[in-house]
Amino acid sequence: MQRNGLIGDTIRSLGFLTRLPLPQRWFEGTDDSLPHQARAFPLAGAVLGLLAGVALMAARGLHLPALACGFIAVGALAAMTGALHEDGLGDTADGFFGGATPERRLAIMKDSRIGTFAALALVIWTGVKASLLASIIERAGPGFALLALVASEAASRAAMLAVWHALPSARPGGLSDNAGRPLWESVVCGCGLGLVILIVGLMPSGGIPAIVYALALTAAALTGFAKLCLMKIGGQTGDTLGAAQQIGAVCILAGLVMAL
């Protein structure tokens, strides 16, 4: 099995995006850079969505309320990733709305302390995501909620790739700046994978309307967010990329709920 193929890139993407224990051999003897292996981010997201969906199904099997199952799935995602993207969402909220200049906003985003805007953003976003999952459970069933998690976690990371490629780095020496922008070929491959997984995950429960709603909401929200990033800090950072993933995931789940 080739370590430089798509499977190898998926495992290394999981190593970058999560805290899951992974075989060390997949990280040895390869010269793949992050801009290249980023094409597999949607596949890594699909794995995370599947595992979170299993947790949701197990909770529902214990006859827990739908909302509790939604929160358990959201918690499982945060635990597997070390709350990487949630941290980005919180830091972005603090910086964008707590600073008066681009320099001050970037300084706030780098500060590890959590502020009022971060706390509000995380509470609201976690609640909305859990509520959307609960709605899918109640309207379609836990199995379709699992598929929705796979679709949303995969496609949102494809959308994150698009934002990463489209915007310049706002912080020289930061995580995304050091990693480099993803190659155009990686973006095309990643977005193609994300779209396929989105269709497979949403079609059984919501049909074509769910796919259209999910794509439209995600495109509109992240286009607006990208413009906000340019206005506030002049580009993207690792934090704003994490926020983009969180926004995309919620938009996809909302699109499915609208179609059910």
* The number of domains: 1
Helix and strand succession?
HHHHHHHHHHH
**What proportion strand?**
under 5%
In terms of per-residue confidence, which ranges show pLDDT below 50 for 5 or more consecutive residues? none
Report on the biggest sheet. none
Overall body shape: globular
- Please state the structural category: mainly alpha
Approximately how much helix is present in the residues?
over 70%
CA distance, first residue to last residue: 41 Å
Mean pLDDT: 93
User: How many E-type strands?
Assistant: 0
Query: In DSSP terms, counting alpha (H) and pi (I) runs of 4 or more, how many helices?
Result: 11
Q: In angstroms, what is the radius of gyration?
A: 18 Å
Characterise this structure:
This protein is an all-alpha fold and 260 residues long. The chain has one domain. The protein has eleven helices and no strands. Helix 4 (66-81) packs across helix 7 and helix 5 (84-98) packs across helix 11 (238-259). The longest helix is centred in the C-terminal third of the chain and has 50 residues, at 184-233.
